Amino acid sequence: MRSTITDVAQAAGVHISTVSRAFSSPHLVNEETRNRVLGAAEELGYRPNRAARALITGKTQTIGLIVADIANPFFAPMIKAAESQARMRDYHILVAETDEDPAVEEDLVRAFAKQVDGVQLCSPRMSNELIEKVAHDVPIVLVNRMVSDLPCVLMDVAGGARSAIEHLAILGHTAIALLGGPRSSWTSREIRKSAGAAARAAGVDLTVFSPNTPTADVGLALAGKVAQSGATAVVAHNDLMAVGLMEGLDSLGVSVPSDVSVVGFDDIEMAQWVRPKLTTVANPTGGAGRTAVDMLLQLGADPTATAQVTLRTELIVRDSTGPGPAGPKGSG
Amino acid sequence: MRSTITDVAQAAGVHISTVSRAFSSPHLVNEETRNRVLGAAEELGYRPNRAARALITGKTQTIGLIVADIANPFFAPMIKAAESQARMRDYHILVAETDEDPAVEEDLVRAFAKQVDGVQLCSPRMSNELIEKVAHDVPIVLVNRMVSDLPCVLMDVAGGARSAIEHLAILGHTAIALLGGPRSSWTSREIRKSAGAAARAAGVDLTVFSPNTPTADVGLALAGKVAQSGATAVVAHNDLMAVGLMEGLDSLGVSVPSDVSVVGFDDIEMAQWVRPKLTTVANPTGGAGRTAVDMLLQLGADPTATAQVTLRTELIVRDSTGPGPAGPKGSG
DNA sequence: ATGAAAGCGCTAACAC
DNA sequence: GTGTTAGCGCTTTCAT
What's the number of domains chain A is made of? Predict the structure, then answer.
C-alpha cells in the first residue's frame, strides 16, 4: 500500500475532491491546479485505489473471463486477445477455468458478479435456463453458445463444416467420418447438424462418432474405429483430435492423405507443424475474444445493447487432404 | 449488483456486524444466530463484496500474474496451474501480458500494486534494479529469474542444458550448435553458460547462434545457418524453435535425426505430436505456477518468508536425437 | 454474544 | 473552480 488521495491533496495543497476530479473529470478543474495535482501524484507514485472507486461508482474496470481450460490452444489465443483489448480500454481481466464442470461454472459467475463489470463466458456447459438465470446477476457475453436473446459471439462453424464436407466431396470422397465433440458443446451440435446436411446435399455417406472428449489422445484412440469404418476422409471436432487421429492412423499403417484425408477445426498453431500439415477450418478465436470484450464494455454503457455476432470461419487447405479413392470429381 | 450485508442483516433480524462475523469469524457468533444469518444469506444469494472488504482489510484475495505472452504454450500451463492453485485457496487471478516490453511490465506491476495481494512476475525483462524497486510496492515472486534475495521460483535449466549436451556427446556428436533465446532472458543466459561448460567438459565444439526471438518461424529461418555450420546436433532455446528448425532442415533435405539431431526445451504438448517426436528438456511450468502462488500466499502471512526454489528439469529422449557421425561413443 | 460507531479511499451531489 | 459533506459495503474496536 502506498500513498492515498489524501497525501496527494496535502502535497498539492488542495482538497481531496479536487484530486479526485483531476483524475476522473479533468475538465472540471483549472489547468494550473490540475498540473499541480498531477505533479504531486506523480511524485508520490499515487494511483487511485480501484476498490475504493468501485465501491462508489459500481464500476470495477474489470472483466471476468471464464473458460473450460486456460492452457487449451483454442482458448489461450482468445484470452490473449481479450486481455489485450481490455488493457487498451484500461480494463483488467480476471481469469478462471471450470474444467468443463457446470457447477464450477455457475459458482464462478456468481463469485465474479460483484467484482467485475461483466463476464465473458466461453463455451459454457451450463443449461440454457441456468445461463439465463445467472445473466441477471451480471452482464454476460456468451462465446460459442447461443441462448435466446443473450448477447453472444459465435463463429460460423456450421459454414466451416459445410466447407469441409464439400471440400472432401469434391476430392471424390464418398464415405466420410465425423469425430464429434462433447455432448454439451453447442459448437459440436452445430458441426454435426451442418455436416449432416452438407453430406446429404453432396450425396456422400457420413458416419458420426460421438460424443468425445476433444483431445489428441482420444483422437489417437479413435484411429482404429475410423480405419474399420471404411471412411476415406475424416472431419474432427478440433485440431487436437485430428492430430491424434493422424498419429493413430500412421501407426496402423494408414497413410494420410493417400489412404485417408483428415480435416480439423480451429487452426491452432500446431496444425502447421505436424506432418502432413493439417487441413483445417480456422476459427477466429482472437477476434472472438476482442469482440466479446467490446460487447461487454458496450453493455456497460447501454445495458439494452444486446447483439448476436457471428464471425467468419475459413477452410485452410494444407496437406492432410487429398483425392478420394475414385479421384477428384470430374477427373474420371 | 445484488443484496448487501444490510439486506441480510434485516432478513435475519440482526445487526450488520453480526452478519460480518458470521462470515469472517464464525466462532464469535452463536450457532443458532449464525445459521439464521447463513440461511438468510443463502436465500438472498448474498456474497460479501470483496472490494468493500479489501478497502478495510487491505487484502484483495487476488493475485496478479504477469507474463510476456498468455498464449505461449510455455506460459499457458503455468497460468492454468496458478489459477487452479489460487482458486483452491479462494483467491482470484488477474492476468496481463507484456509483449516482452519492460516498460509495460513496470507499468503493470504498478497498476496491480493496490489491487492485488501479490504479483507473480514470470520471466521478467526489467532490469534487476527496477525489479527491486517495484518489489517495494507489492509482494513479488519471480519466476524464471533470479534477483538478489527476492523470492523466486526457478527451473534447473542449467542442469537440463548439461543433460542435453551430455546426451548428444554420448551419442557421438562432436560439433553442436546452440540456438539461444532473447538477450534479456535469464533462462537463456543460464542455458548458454551451462551448455558451454558441459561442452568443454565433454570435449565437444559448441557454436552459439544468439540472441533470437524464440519462435518456430525463427527456428525455421535458422536452419540454413545451422546446416552450414557443420554441426551434427542442435540444442534450441525452446521447443517452438526446435520444431521450426526441424521443418527448416527437412526442407533443406537434411534429415532429423540421421543427419542432425535436435533437442528442445520445455516439453510443450506439440513436442510429442511432431515428427520426429522431439527430444526435449521438460520444464515443470505447472509446478512453477503452483509454487509461485503458494509462495505469494505465504508471503502474505509472513512478509519476511522469502525463498528461492529451483524445480527439477528432465531430459525426455524421443526420436529427434540419434547417433553422431562416428556412431555412439564406445561403439567404435 | 451482539449492537453501535468509526472509518477504509474514494466519488458525487451540493454549496459557495 | 474548489471545498464540504455524505456515503458506497464492509470490518473492527469498543461497549454492553
Answer: 3
